[in-house]
Amino acid sequence: MKARYRRLDALLPIAAEALSRYKLRTALSILGIVLGVAAVIAMMSVSEGARREALDQVNALGLDNLVARSRGPGAIGESGRRLTAGDADHLLSLVPLAHTASPLIERYLRLTRSDRSVMARVVGVRATYQAILRLSLEQGRFLAAIDESSAATVCVLGASLAKGLFGYRDPIGEQLRIGAAFFQVIGVLRDQRADPLSPNAIAWRDIGMAAMVPLAALSGHTLAAAPEQPVDEIWLRVRDGERAAELAQVFEHALKRIHGDGGPFDIVVPRELLAQRYRTQRTFGVIIGSVAVLALLVGGIGIMNMMLSSVVERTHEIGIRRTAGATRRDVTLQFLIEALLMTLSGGALGIVLGTAVSWGITAYAGWSTRVSPLAVALAFAVSCLAGLVFGLYPAVKAASLEPVDAVRYE
């Protein structure tokens, strides 16, 4: 074992000196490995970032939630049927394991406070919406049942919206004009850090830039007086999220029972959306991974080409080493070490470049990325494998030269 370590200690300086003779050629050969490993790191960082973002978005919707959405604002079916506020209470009695429900209407209105004004989404919901989306508050309180029944003109602001309108001033108790009416701010939501601008985002509204008010205050009718008033969505939380897909069928059947088969609604199941997003990401990963593999293959072929050229140019040197007592194994190890030095150094540079590219994607494109330890380990393993695979044939070819013929070679 000690003899083997001494052999490696002796061969490493020889391999490093051989590579330093042809600096430009060595650098160009390493470049292919650098780009291939950087592509692997960047691809996996984008994929991991997208996976975490999708999981965060679906968690924001709730894996135990079901949503019925109108196909358009105030969508009306062929027979004049539409989703109504009263459907929420009916669904609680018709859907097994139903926990709580809330109708929802949404308007895009101007919010004005003093000299500040912004267009934002105003969402009319019941007090149960907090439990459905598991919303947490930074300040104040959420809507209450008494606010519903009295159609109180109160509102809860998203964190980003509150900061935009009030800056660092405490907004609780302040008056805010929403549309043509004045509302009192009673609460501010904790920042959810959702990105509504991401492609095909699962969460279709940014809670941080929304104002929540009692449904009756936005529609002008209390649920008790007008249960048939149209709504845009109905949210239903079930007790067993694992059975969400199964309960979604019951949910849809119950709505059809209320409105008939032509009901103007679509059923959204966040758990199924998550699975669909993962399938899309896997397809994206396979495509980008194929490109990265091709880049590594090209880089490996470049290293093999350099090593074969090096064997021809150093035939006389190999012959002298063999006549001086070097074995075939020594020659093989020397050329393998040279290949490994190139691929490992290329892999290290590729990891640095790939990490920088992932940071650049986050900074300039706004995509969420994350360089995982698995990606770094995979890049290191690929670098080792490329060195062994593409350096083995030149090493064996060098070791197979006959000493006498090699010494005579000019």
Structure report:
The protein is of the alpha+beta class and 410 residues long. The protein folds into 2 domains: 2-57 and 280-408, no CATH class; 72-263, no CATH class. The protein contains 13 helices and 10 strands. It has helices spanning 2-21, 23-61, 87-94, 129-133, 145-150, 159-166, 215-219, 244-259, 270-313, 315-323, 328-365, 373-399, 403-408, and strands spanning 65-70, 98-113, 116-125, 137-140, 154-157, 175-178, 181-189, 210-214, 233-238, 265-268. The chain has a 6-stranded mixed beta barrel with strand order 2-3-8-5-7-6. Helix 2 (23-61) crosses helix 11 (328-365), helix 9 (270-313) packs across helix 11 (328-365) and helix 9 packs parallel to helix 12 (373-399). The model is unreliable at 1-6, 74-80 and 194-203 (pLDDT under 50).
Oligomeric nature of the chains: single chain
Number of H- or I-type helical stretches: 13
Q: What value does the Rg take, in angstroms?
A: 33 Å
Please give the domain count.
2
In short:
The chain has 410 residues and is an alpha+beta fold.
